[in-house]
Every structure is written in C-alpha cells, then in structure tokens.
Design brief:
Oligomer: single chain
Number of helices: 8
Strand order of the largest sheet: 11-12-13-10-4-14
Mean pLDDT: 97
Strand content: 25-35%
C-alpha cells in the first residue's frame, strides 16, 4: 500500500503527458526524466535547442528594507554590489561553512530580490533566511506553486524565443534578467541555465505556462527531461546539491571559492570560511575521465595503490565527448589534473585520470 504525501505536479504536467514523457518522482514532484531519449535530448541541446520544466525549483520573492542586509548575512556573495536586473550564483552556508544549498539571486530593485533554491531545499533556505533576519523587516513569499519556470537552452534559443516576445534579447547578457511580455503574458526572462549552453530561464504564471511550453515546442525546441539535464550539467562541470555538495562539504572543497566573498562583517559563515581558506581543504572535488566503458556512479570508492582516498559523487556517459566522466572527492594531494586514479566499480578496479573542469565548454561567438 502506498504511503506518504502525494507528489506535487507542475502546471506543465499535462504538456509532458501529451509529449510522451516518462514521469518519475523527484524531490517530492512528479517530473519528466526523458522524452525521446536522454542522449538524443543532450544532442538536441548541444546542437539546437531544448526546453526543460524546472518549475520544481524554488522561487522565493524577498522584499522589504531588511532584505539586502539579510541576504548579505546568509549568502556567500555581497548583494549590495548587485545592480537591478543582474544576478549572481552563490552558496548558502551554515555557521561551519557547510553548504545548505546553492542558488541564483536576482536583484529586482532597491529592496526586492528573487532567490532560486533547489527543489528539495526551498523550505530550509526560506527558514534559514527567516532565522537570520533578526529584527530586520523582510518579507519572504514562496511563489513556486503559483508560477512555472522553463529553461530554454542551446545555440538556437535566442532565435526561437525572439518569435514569442518583443523584448530585445540581445540586451540580456549572461546573468542578467528583464521583466516584459512573452507569449502574450507578463514574463521574467533571465539569461541563465544549467547546461553549459547559451539560453534563458523564463518565469510565467502557472496559468500561462502550458501555452508557453507548447509554443516553444512547435517552434522547434525539443522537450528534455531531468536525465538529459544531469548529463549536460556534468559535462559542463556544474555541481548538483545532494550529490556533489551538502552540509558536510564547504565551498573550498567543492571548488566554489570564486563565489565566496567571506571577509564581510555580519556574514554568518565568515569566521569558518576564512579559517578553512587559510588552512586549505584536506580534500577536493575533482573531475575524472574513465579509461574504458565502465560507468562510475555516486558512492564508488576512489583508490590509489589499494588505498581508498575518496569517493565518486556523480558519473555519466558523455554523448558529447564520447567518454565516461564523473566527479568525486579525493585527498588534496591526489587532486592535480593528470593524476591517475583507480575507481572501484562493483569490485573491479577501473583506471581513470583526473582532468580539469569543465569537461565541455561551448564555442562562444566572437
């Protein structure tokens, strides 16, 4: 007998059923894992354009005179330096520097922001913000169920989206966003994504979502599921919270130091992260390429001369590169690119080589 809470469904659920998606439970939501096939969907995004339902991701509207100072206390970046219409990737850390979540924060205007946490962490991030708001005046509204978010990704993304909006998409540079009209409705459009390709993330009301999805599909964007999204993000060297980082991992171990501005008064993880930075992490997240056809999945031990020196956090076959790739933690002295390691895959020691991240980098227009 089935127990537990029923799965949430995004407002695009009927679109996925109509498109023949295979639906699976994910972070409390019923989500498409694939449509035509994971490899075909990956290739579509790399060569043309794909659309992803990412409505399960959290959408926290944060406003009020205390919003900026609260975010500066909780986020790893200084939002005071963020201009309206611009965004920053960041991590949300606890007092010890452990990563509660990774997010993108957008500044809407002087006192309002949009924060995008991961699906399974939205409630805990909102609670952490409230806990650390102190006496500041701040409003946090979760609009996740009232809106949808579509990721349109790939080299043809702008051409496809241009046909559905009067917004000057050339004016939206990476990590910038505008609010305007698209698909005949009010839309928030950001030049962000999780695939390593150019593209946009579009937020609309839940009511308008299915219309936008179907227009994009008939305009040539290929529906893609979470399976392709996982391959694409790993090829691009992008981390997944819950796999490659969590509260037992700090940003320096995870290679996310670029997104940490720790030396700020009032920042909750300031002392812990400064101490970690000075001492250096004892382990580091690496990328590796398998020699041969074996696939290293999360949890596989990473070995060196018969000694376990770490573990795999993510691993997939890469259709773009034609090799099997992965990420994992190893001792810092074995993290240098070019280092040879072994991975225990179901009892077999399989050779692999540490490589620089990302595995794949798109060719940008000159």
């Amino acid at each position: 007998m089935r127990t537990g809470r029923p799965l949430n469904k995004t407002a695009l659920n009927s679109c996925h059923i109509d498109s023949g998606a295979r639906l699976v439970p994910f972070a409390g939501w019923e989500m498409p894992i694939q449509y035509s096939g994971i490899f075909d969907e990956v290739k579509a995004v790399r060569s043309s354009a794909g659309i992803f339902d990412v409505s399960h991701m959290g959408r926290l509207e944060i406003s009020g005179p205390g919003s900026e100072s609260t975010l500066n206390r909780v986020l790893s970046v200084n939002v005071s330096a963020l201009l309206s219409g611009r965004a920053k990737y960041n991590v949300v850390c606890n007092e010890n520097g452990g990563i509660i979540d990774d997010c993108i924060v957008y500044r809407r205007d002087e006192t309002s922001f949009l924060l995008i946490p991961n699906a399974s962490n939205c409630a805990s991030v909102a609670a952490w913000l409230r806990e650390n708001s102190g006496q500041r005046t701040i409003d946090i509204i979760d609009t996740t169920e009232d809106t949808i978010m579509i990721a349109l990704q790939g080299p043809n993304s702008q051409t496809i989206l241009t046909g559905h909006t009067d917004i000057d998409l050339d004016s939206i540079r990476p990590f910038r966003a505008v609010t305007g009209v698209a698909f005949g409705a009010k839309a928030f459009i950001a030049r962000t994504g999780y695939t390593g390709e150019d593209g946009f993330e579009i937020i609309l009301s839940a009511k308008e979502g299915p219309n936008a999805w179907r227009h994009l599909e008939t305009s040539g964007a290929i529906p893609c599921g979470l399976g392709a999204r996982d391959v694409l993000r790993l090829e691009a060297g992008l981390l997944l919270h819950g796999n490659d980082m969590d509260q037992t991992v700090n940003p320096y171990e995870a290679g996310l130091q670029t997104f940490v501005e720790s030396d700020r008064e009032g920042y909750i993880a300031r002392d812990a992260l400064i101490s970690i930075e000075k001492g250096g992490p004892s382990r580091r997240l690496i990328g590796f390429v398998i020699e041969g056809k074996k696939i290293a999945r999360g949890g596989c031990p990473i070995m060196d001369d018969g000694e376990e020196i770490g573990n795999v956090t993510s691993g997939v076959p890469s259709p773009t590169l034609g090799v099997n790739i992965g990420m994992g933690f190893v001792r810092s002295d074995r993290a240098e690119p070019g280092t040879f390691i072994d991975i225990n895959i179901r009892g077999e020691q399989v050779a692999a080589k540490v490589t620089r991240l990302p595995f794949y980098r798109r060719n940008k227009k000159s």
